[in-house]
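Proteins fold reproducibly. Consider a sample protein:
=====
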Amino acid sequence: MSVDKQSSEDILNEKWDFCISNLLVKTGIGLSVGIVASALIFKRKSWPIALSTGFGIGVSYAECQKTFNPTAIPGVKIIKNSSSTSG
């Protein structure tokens, strides 16, 4: 029976890959929304672009923080498995 275990380095690489791709996607969506809002609603001001891009970066940062440290999520309690050997 062969169990394919990942090393801690592989797990960390997957988390970083997820965070970087998430950053690019969320920043791109925020930038796009800012450009559209700037052109259609705010008479071509630049602040909606910066604001929505910042929101995208902030959401991405929060999701990365949850990925690397799941105990930092408010309301989540980690319960340790108490395996006692009774004989």
